[in-house]
Amino acid sequence: MAILLSLLILIILGLIAGIIALAVKLHNKKDDYDELEEKYVNLRKEYNMTDSAFSKQNDSLNDIFDVYQKLIQETEIVNPNISKDSYTNVTEKVRSSNNLPDGTYDFVTKDEISFKDGYQVSFETDSRNYESGYYSNEQYDNLVYKLACLLNVNASLGVYQTIPEISYYIQNKTKALAIAALYNQKSIWDWENDFEAFNDFHQDK
Question: What are the extents of the domains in the chain?
Answer without folding.
Answer: 2-74, 84-198
